[in-house]
Each structure stands twice: as C-alpha cells, then as structure tokens.
Known about the structure:
Layout: H1 3-53, H2 57-60, H3 66-74, H4 78-90, H5 93-99, H6 101-113, H7 120-124, E1 127-129, E2 135-137, H8 143-160, H9 172-187, E3 193-196, E4 205-208, H10 215-227
Antiparallel strand pairs: 1-2, 3-4
Amino acid sequence: MPKALVERAKAQHLARQSRLQERARAALALVRERQADIAANMVDIGLALVELKAEGMAEALGRSGFDEVCEKDVRMAVSTANGLIALATKVPREVVKSLGPDRARAVLELVEATPEDDTPDEVLRAKLKLPSGRTLDVAAASTQDLRDAAKEFRDARSGAEGKRSRGFTATPAEKKVFGALAKRLTDGGHGGAKLLAVRDGKGAKVRFEVRLAELEGFVSALRKAAKG
Length: 228
C-alpha cells in the first residue's frame, strides 16, 4: 500500500479516536453530574422522611403511622425509607455526593458494624484490622469489599455473643434499655443513636448524632423517650 494511503488511514483513525474520546468524556461528565444529583436528592428525601416520621405527622395525613405513610403516600418500603433516613442523618451530604449513594451506604454499613466509636469520615481514612486478621484499606477497597468487611464484623460479633470478655459492659439488660430508647427516638423522628460497649467497668455508653439546627427538638424528644 502506498505510504500516502497509510498515512491518510492513520490520520483518519486518530481523528476518529479523538472524536470518540471527546464524546466519551462528555458522557462521563454527564453521568457524574447526574450521580451527584441523585445522591443529593436521596439525602433530601431522607430528611423529608425524617420530617414525615415525626410525632403527629402520620395522623395529620390521616394515616395510622409512618409505615402506612410509606406504603400509601410515599409508595416505598419502610426498610427503604429507614435506609434513606440513616443515610441522610448519619453520613454528611458532601460524603454521600462524593461517594455516590451505593458506596456511601456501604461505608455506613461498615461504620455501624465496627465495634469502635467512629464516623464515616474516620472510617474512610482508616486501614481497618478485620476479625480475620487481614487489613482493609477502606479508601482503596471496592464497594463489595466494604460490605463483605461489614458482614465479617457482624458475624464476629454474633459469634461472640454470650461470651462476654472481662470488663465488657454492654450487658443484655443495657441492650434492652437502649433498644427501647432508640425505638422511641426513631418513632419520634430522631435517629443517630449508637450503643457503645466499653471496657472501663462503668457501664455502656450511648452516642447521639444530631444536626445542630435540630438540637433543641432532639433534647426535648430525648427527655420524653427517657421517661417512656
């Protein structure tokens, strides 16, 4: 084949590759932009669901409770609604937007599975020692790796249940009290409670996460829940 034809074919191929690359980058940019929108929207939906779960809201809509609101008005499974509430109230909006909803949920799952008192930001920067002995670099791990690690922590905790080590202070009675308190808070539209089993011999601790703007309402709800 003449050299001129070879050069021409090569130039056409490069031009086509350049056009395809430009289209691909534009498509990727659009996908990433829409993914950020989806993540932000899911946080907003979660916060709106918190509002709908607040005391008296279901009754104001003529419903018997939050479950019925989800079923008949939101048209969403209660488990899905509670998942969105957890995502919106426990993971910072910026983290959800940067990770995307699916990975953000996996990070939250891992946070709730680890025995330490940690936050999504802390876990994202961590290299976690798993019960199996291996180390997980959270930032570099795949989303499925995060879910597998969370399951490993849960399985280890489940296997150790009833075999309390010396000084482990989260007793069954404490768990029962905390479960009732957390349920009353959740029913009142407030989440973010976590039971912390500590080893100082002074009993379990409870950690609360609440937005500053909602602090006054949370304190009031906590007082009511504690009396209940």
